[in-house]
Protein 1
Amino acid sequence: MRLTDFWTRLEQTFGPGYAASIAADQVLPQLGGRTIEQALDAGIETVVVWRAVVAAYPDRVPARLH
């Protein structure tokens, strides 16, 4: 998954403003206790980070974006 696709999906799920907040502030256990931004900066593949988002917010992420 390209990084631009990742951010598009995150914004479609949470809205532009809230997506940025989630990425910067929400620590996800699925990412080893990192935020989305920290995981991406550490070189974790975007598809792995996206799967962690889906796992953390299963009721929020639309099925078409899984």
Protein 2
Amino acid sequence: MKDYSNHAPTRADARDVKITDVETCVVKGNFEWNLVRVHTDAGVTGIGESYRGGKVTDIMEYMKRFLIGENPLDVERLFRRMVQETSGHGGTTGKSVTAASGIEIALWDVAGKLLDVPVYQLLGGKYRDEVRIYADCHAGDALVVDDGYHEQGSREAYSPEAYAAEAERVKNMGFTALKFDLDIDSYDNVPDPYNGRISNEALEHKRQVVEAVREAIGYEIDLAFDIHWDYSLDSAKRVARALEPYDLMWLEDVIPPENLDAQREVARSTSTPLAAGENRFRVHEFKELLYDFGVDIITPDPTTCGGLAESKAIANRAEENYIVFSPHNVCGPIGTMACVHLGACIANFGVLEYHALDVDWWDDLVVRDAPLIQDGYIEVPEKPGLGVELDEEVAKEHLHDPGTMFG
């Protein structure tokens, strides 16, 4: 087994730093936000976030046993060590990589603070001063998320008029790019909830929804829709073709993610741009999507797929194929700001997802004088590290399990 422990310890005294502890907690927002803090003997701490879901923090706590004593500045080596040390537990993919992603982000935060530079500088430098945000929206009361699964609202909540009204509301908040979910159980599961085939009624309803939103916001606003892997190959093609007249920014996750040949078949059948990638891990799992042109836009989740360096490697491969990189992001502000640094340093970056419109305390979770998102953009921080710090008092008010704050 490869040994990614420290075999090159020689460095200047100022950079001879050791990890002393790794702590975790889970904040309950519209999703479970898995937070991690890395402590060092230099008195500097870093914070990171991993994708939502149960037991991710348990894996982070497991990783602590071989991270303590390591130098936090060796970020990419330590990511490989985390993957290698958990490889016997399925650590080359899945939740082990997700856990490593959050720690990797915290290590970049530590490194930036120790070296007195923003994370984007460590990742290669800046292309842009602001990162454009798209708002993930829901029509009416159409979605309730609870404990990792979702319940859709009544059929009335999915009227084209409800979608259009929400689109206008969010446009007026200053966003210039929006996304809605377009998979709707009460329509799509008729007459059969399992086979993924769409009825004429459901297809026409989707078309009417997209048409209503376009009429409400015009064509100067970028518009995307997500259909969450629900459809058979023939139905995915039908949906994509039906939406061609509306000049979408993209249609996301059109078929189940396992079969990349089928994904490519849909891409070949339509002029509607397709996006996918949020449930893939590490650069290796993106190879066929990118080099076989199964997507027009690639959407990895940096807090899932391996952290910031791995995401940048994916973006570099996408750039070889002239494919835009637009990260999936359902994080709190910590993970979101990590993605902002990533967006700053990637040439082929498009837009970053924001998925917390209904969390009115989202901004309060970090120490901040003004909202992070202003007129649909987030300014790239110039402070060392990620440039934001957790407001622990606010975090304590929203812990998933009360009394489980850091320390």
Protein 3
Amino acid sequence: MISEIGRVTKLNNGKACVEIEKRSACADCHAGCVCDLGKSVMLIDASDPIGVHENDTVQLSIPTESALRASFVVYGIPLIALISGVLGGEYLGKILGISTVLEILGGFTFLGISLVFIKLYDNVFRQNRKNQPVITKVIHEHVNWQLGVDN
């Protein structure tokens, strides 16, 4: 399991929006993240089976298998598609006598098709419950000192 610690910013029907600070490890994880490259924090929608409150500091976990699968899909498939397109374009280009043009067109065509596949796969991947981040424990409960009650 890959674990992160963050702060709950919003609750919504059994899910919590958790704000975590970006680290270099974030480049390896694409499971359910809503990343904004211009910010130092990212927001993740996580399942909340334990009942957290806003502003609680929590630990959330993402299955390692899901993160590895997402990384392969995002990085590996486009690379394989690009190389396949170039090789296919080269083969067809030798037959027709215009190999360079067909290599470039084949590479970009296969790359484009792979990006459409990734977008479709992403929708399915996010729907699968086992791929979603889950809050596993509360590290620190937020206490509203003005009212004297837990939030």
